[in-house]
Write a structure and sequence with these properties.
Number of domains: 2
CATH topology of the largest domain: Butyryl-CoA Dehydrogenase, subunit A, domain 3
Number of strands: 5
Strand content: 5-15%
CATH class of the largest domain: Mainly Alpha
Radius of gyration: 21 Å
Low-confidence stretches: 280-303
Structural class: mainly alpha
CATH architecture of the largest domain: Up-down Bundle
Order of helices and strands: HHHHHEHHHHHHHHEEHEHE
Oligomer: single chain
Mean pLDDT: 78
Shape: elongated
Length: about 300
Amino acid sequence: MVTSELLARARQGDGDAFEALVDRYRRELHVHCYRILGWATDAEDALQETMMAAWQGLGDFEERSSVRTWLYRIATNRSLNALRSVSRRPAMEPSLVWANPPTPARVSDVPWLEPYPDVLLDQVADAEAGPEARYERSEAISLAFITALQLLPSRQRAALVLRDVLGFHASEAARILETTTASVTGALQRARATLQQNLPPVGHRERPPVPGSPAEAALVSRLVAAFVDGDIDGIVVVMTEDVWLSMPSVPFEYQGRDVAAQALSIVFGRAGRTALSPLGRTDSLRSGSMYATRMSNCSTPTG
């Protein structure tokens, strides 16, 4: 059914028509909210608010842009509003700060950050990014990229995602952000400079195994076996030389295999028996991981 017919029916209060109109964009909008917020749970809340606002504001949609662009404007604004909420992040418990930890490479401003579940990424279409996008889908959802995004002021973050990840034209991004093209261009230039300082050049990044490939399965199996056995050397050997290790909600971040091994020795030294359990789709969205970690007598989470 064509968009115009669905739109007409939805404006008359047809909920099924509205769902058919917006459902194709639901997953990519969730990823968009996640990139800005850095937390899948917050992204889900922002997505629900987006859909509610779209349903309630359908009568005001003037069709000067596509439905997709209109939904991105709502989702972006809802995500930016969420960033302004001072109570949106869980406070770090003092008991989770390690005693006598190794010197961290840095203390994170975003200890709450969580990865986006791979199982949900399979539902996001590749063809939606515009021609001006600078990042591939896999890179633009990597934890390193999302971490770097969180270092940007909110408007710069949104401008970079809209322009360099989604490939919107400057004029489209300006309409989404309800500002001028010059303002978007300036915010984008500053955001790119910050990311350049916090991300290695593309050619220097080691590509991960293809999702679902035998190489990925073998790598996960090695990591799980080493983790269950408390084999720190076995964990470290599958890391890249420039690995960053963080353990939310402890704010310390460690770079390099040697210091990562020191940090892991504290974790396993305080832990009792360790077990990893595969998670289903719902749990993986909530935890940001395909495995849950259970450690008896351990107060430090290691997701």
